[in-house]
Amino acid sequence: MTNNHFKIIIPLYNSEQWIHKTIKSLELQEYKNFECIIIDDCSTDNSYEVAKKSIAGKENYKLYSNKNNLGPLANAYRGAMGLCSNLEDENIVAILDGDDFLFSPKSLSILNEKYQDQNCWMTYGSYINLSDKKRGKFSRQVPDHVIKSNGYRSYEWCTSHMRTYKSFLLKNVNIDDLLDEKGNFYRAAGDLALMFPLLEMSGENAKYIKDILYIWNDLSPLNEHKNKRDVQLFCESQIRNGKRYSKLNYTRGNKIESKS
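RE: above sequence
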């Protein structure tokens, strides 16, 4: 079995009551081949201090603090592209928000097993809500007709947590497609801005995972749909109307860039 290397990116903002549990859920993983990048996005509470204490003495964890608040998308992208050490094409990037948690100690093991298939370039799904422990409604198998027609942007959002992808895909995303009309990273709906290009480049190589991997903290007051719904809807509209990417022609060690 291939021992895949994961780059776990944890963006956080004002998550002092959650971040210790987030890190603990990663620390408890049976699968240990990962590097964790934690980015405190200019929190106004004690998130940084709690995170620093939680990772003390752990060599594969790194903690950074932004001077300005950049938003989740900027941190997810820059965390992988700028802060990870020795990012190789076959490394797997995984996003774990700083107020969410991995579901069980087997979450990374399940992902590693999925990536044994060389035709697996990225994964999405599955999560439960923290509030009611029910399966999340935004994580379902994308229908074949959507995949074949490359119609992700016109189809309902269903490729949510847990989001993972090989870094060669991320390297083929044009950073301009992650920016709003002012040249800043989208401040909301950032998961769509990044996932649509990745899905479009992957096609049938994007795999849905039915097993629960992730706990989404729907109780957090900082969730976008609670505190900036108008901005979220505006950004979503802009992203959905963006240009589509073509399927990437890729073989290990020899990739051909897609054309968006």
